[in-house]
Write a structure and sequence with these properties.
about 180 residues, alpha+beta, Aminopeptidase, binds coenzyme A
Length: about 180
């Protein structure tokens, strides 16, 4: 099962991708914008460990490699929530640094969100970028997500307390469904 959208492909991760994953993920500028579970340095073992956690639970697929010209250029995942939050997915993603600023992130967010609403019984997809993550906020905005809130001094990253944001899109408001 692969999702094709405007020149990018989202395909479910395979353990064979570990070699490409750790090369693109081993970047301090990427880890600086993600939660602490995403380490820097990011080693081949980190890639294998992560894939071994997500792959047994990846049917139906929710964690995708972002592929361009058959190369892994990034990662995007829609994470299920539980209990009273179970009609939500949280979306998270990163791209290799050489692919930033080309519109790929926006396309991947649109494709994964379309897939999420079409294939799962959920009503809302949200993301929580740090307030200073201008690229992620802009990509979410271009993919139709709305800024719901800025949470003051909500997170600590690399020893610095920061604001974080909540962006969301509701099923009936999402405009980028892939046929
Ligand atoms: C977030 C990320 C996936 C965005 O992907 P991308 O392909 O670069 O995003 P896009 O090109 O679709 O859109 C980014 C937009 O932000 C803009 N932008 C980038 N840096 C910016 C900055 N410092 N200030 C203002 N705008 C900025 C770009 O110009 C672009 O807007 P445009 O299309 O109007 O020119 C990528 O930057 C990344 O992997 N970052 C590190 C990991 C991360 O932050 N993940 C998200 C955690 S919430």
């Amino acid at each position: 099962m692969e999702l094709f959208f405007e020149g990018i492909v989202l395909r479910p991760w395979s353990i064979k991708d570990a070699n490409q994953l750790y090369v693109i993920a081993d970047n301090e500028k990427i880890s600086a914008n993600l939660r602490d579970g995403f380490p820097f340095p990011y080693t081949l073992k980190d890639a294998r460990d992560w894939l071994n956690i997500i792959l047994p639970e990846n049917l139906p697929p929710r964690f995708f490699a972002i592929i361009i010209d058959k190369q892994v250029v990034g990662s995007i995942g829609i994470v299920t929530k539980t209990d009273i939050y179970r009609k939500n997915f949280e979306i998270g993603y990163f791209l290799s640094e050489e692919n930033w600023g080309k519109g790929i992130g926006t396309k991947a967010i649109k494709a994964a969100t379309s897939y999420a609403f079409k294939n799962f019984d959920i009503v809302r997809v949200y993301a929580e970028p740090f307030a200073d993550n201008a690229a992620s906020r802009k990509a979410l905005d271009k993919a139709g997500f709305i800024l719901e809130a800025t949470l003051k001094r909500n997170v600590i990253k690399n020893g610095i307390i920061k604001d974080s944001c909540i962006y969301s899109v509701l099923k009936e408001e999402f405009r980028y469904y892939i046929p």
